[in-house]
Amino acid sequence: GRHREDLESLGFEYNGLYFDQDSFHIFAGLCAVDTPQNVEKMFKALREVGITTSRMGAYKPRTNPYSFQGHGRKCLPWLFELAGKYGVKCIAMEVTKEIHIEEIYEELERAGRPTGVMLQIGTRNAQNFELLKAVGSQKEFPVLYKRGMGITLEESLNACEYIASEGNRNIIFCLRGVKTNLGDPHRNLVDFAHVPVVKSLTRLPVCVDPTHSVGRRHFAPDGIQEIFHIAAQGVIAGANAILVEFHPNPEEALCDGPQALTLEELPHFVEDMRLVREAY
Ligand code: PEP
Ligand code: MN
């Protein structure tokens, strides 16, 4: 790519957290913010396992217009306050329009910056070039870019160049599975073999999203959650972060409940990923 050298950087710091091709973070949380009670349970569980990075969607791009679209700006004040209360330093949060960046900035300021936000570009906006330029032309927030589910890897890397070439090089590249026409027991074809590919083509930290790759809460024959297995594959491949969905009560989740892990599973997930990372 023309600007591939723009992606050369030695990592970045954000709100006391460091991200590069050796670092490791687990962004665990709800697909979509629903109630303060559920968000608080999630943050409390994260604090108990010593995790300060989370995921929470306020602006949800949905395939069906009648599905829950996210609480949007109005949940940000209490979301940020709860994050601060439980020591969450960074929330990965999708933005689908330029105005959302401003809303997040304003609400963080108003709340006294109790936490930080990483702007997520969802797979459906992987080539929304105006949105990419918008997150690229601000340096307040780092960006979690999710690869396009139906475009080439090269095209997704070029999309990151859009962000970097506008000035913001604080980017994490996230693999989240791709669509195929072959049929698949999973929601998407797991693409974690691309972790070392992306790490060698760029200097970006690479994240994996086992939740949207697998797409279901389901026990493998050995009695282990399939999502644990697939996440471990990402860690073995060298992932620098995991984006993963949990919910205190998946049955009442307003988005992606069937693929959410439970809070009882959280300590096991964290411990397993740490053990796998140590072993490789
Ligand atoms: C998500 O992380 O909740 C999400 C919508 O992911 P993706 O854009 O990868 O589908
Ligand atoms: Mn989701």
From TrEMBL:
Q: Tell me the domain of life.
A: Bacteria
The EC designation for this entry is 2.5.1.54
**Top-tier EC class:** transferase
What are the recorded GO MF terms, alphabetically? Answer: 3-deoxy-7-phosphoheptulonate synthase activity
Keywords in alphabetical order, please: Transferase
The DAHP synthetase I/KDSA domain sits at 21-271
Name under which the protein is recorded: 2-keto-3-deoxy-D-arabino-heptulosonate-7-phosphate synthase I beta
Which part of the complete sequence is present?
80 to 359 of 390
